[in-house]
Amino acid sequence: IARHTQEEQLIKISTPVLKRLNKELGDSVYLGVKNGQKVLYLAHCDSIKDVRINGCAGGEYPMNCSAPGKILLSHSDESEILRFFDLPVEKRTDNTIVTAKDFKKEAEKIRENGYAVDNEEFAKGIICISVPIFDSTDKIIASIGISTLTLYDDIDGLINNKLNLLKEAGNEISCCLGGKKQI
């Protein structure tokens, strides 16, 4: 029951922020939480561009090759990362990380930078960027992200032109939950 109540609160706080970000950028935006070995989208706003990615609340995605999943997995303890990669991990594209050794290097960069990217790791032509959401104990409980197509943008464009807006949105949600602000 506690998790369900926390998720309801998270959705309620996040939805107006997601809608605003979606309207401003036109990209798909979403809120994800860890759900076993996957990231579960609690909320999702579809892109408003002509060609768009399908996604929905309730959708689940691999943690090793999705930006929101990588945020959540990278802040897990080492034993959880090792357990994740002990299970069969699908290599979805040439860019998909499939070993604990490679993911640990990626996780270090994610923790240092404060964001994760999916550079065509989940699917060719799709790129994503995600930042953490903190609760009142400064624990990462979720991630917020942007997805778009390489038709419209590239990873450098997401980082240079949209990361600050995404961080502001993440900070707004975190602050409403009593969490810390990300730099």
Helix content: 40-55%
Low-confidence segments: none
Main sheet: strand order: 3-2-1-6-5-4
Number of strands: 6
- Outline: globular
Describe it.
- The protein is built from 5 helices and 6 strands; from the N terminus they run αβββαααβββα.
- It is α+β, with helices and mostly antiparallel strands.
- Helix 1 (2-25) crosses helix 5 and helix 2 (67-74) packs across helix 4.
- Helix content is 42%, strand content 23%.
Q: What is the structure about, briefly put?
A:
The chain has 183 residues and is of the alpha+beta class. The chain contains 5 helices and 6 strands, in the order αβββαααβββα.
Question: What are its keywords?
Answer:
183 residues, alpha+beta, 6 strands
Per-chain topology:
Blueprint: H1 2-25, E1 28-35, E2 38-45, E3 60-62, H2 67-74, H3 78-86, H4 100-113, E4 116-119, E5 126-134, E6 140-149, H5 155-176
Antiparallel strand pairs: 1-2, 1-6, 2-3, 4-5, 5-6
Helix pairs in contact: 1-5, 2-4
